[in-house]
Amino acid sequence: MAIVLDGSNAAGSINLGTNGTISNLAAGGLPDGSVDRDTLAANISKRIWGSTIDTTSGTDHVLLSSIPADCNRFGWGVDQVQIDTNGDLGIQMSTSGGYVTSNYKSGGGWMRTSNTCAVTHVSDAFISCTPPSSDWGASTPFTGNYEANRVKNNIWTFTGSTWFDASTEYLGWNTGWVDISGALTAIKLHSEQTLTSGAIRAWYEIGGS
What we know:
Layout: E1 2-5, E2 12-15, E3 22-23, H1 37-41, E4 46-49, E5 53-54, E6 60-64, E7 71-83, E8 89-95, E9 98-99, E10 105-112, E11 117-122, E12 126-129, E13 142-152, E14 155-164, E15 170-179, E16 186-191, E17 195-206
Antiparallel strand pairs: 1-2, 2-3, 4-17, 5-17, 6-16, 7-13, 7-17, 8-9, 8-12, 8-16, 10-11, 10-15, 13-14, 14-15
């Protein structure tokens, strides 16, 4: 039995009935129109990682720039990040018109070992953490992972979770959505207060269905 691959002027064949040889194919692989690199890669997503950024100073740090138009997902992780006083820490998204600083429908809450909890809401960013009131500050590092997904057009949804390493331990959660009214081009970390320690790293995905 032979399978004919008719992708070039000289038809090639794979002989499965005798010795399993492939004959009459041009150098470089299978002919276009049969199996090629683009066909094999269709609908396969690829994750691109940014550099690890030390969050030891300042309030704003660009995490990813030049994000391609076919990005459908991005995320970030934080490790032992601290700020110098009470305040929120969040992610702002950019389009070709600049960073979006309003219209985020973003909220989060926290609970601690004594079973008390609270909820807050911000509109200027996707919040990465919700400060546990007076326990938040230089003595309260936090660690967590967060992800945003493009659901439709330029509408993005977001979710994440945070561990606060305070004297009274806290677990935080966050969720929200935003319509940025344009293609995503970059993301940055935005803090209400000065960053003092820790690190953050972000990624984005392209491709997929």
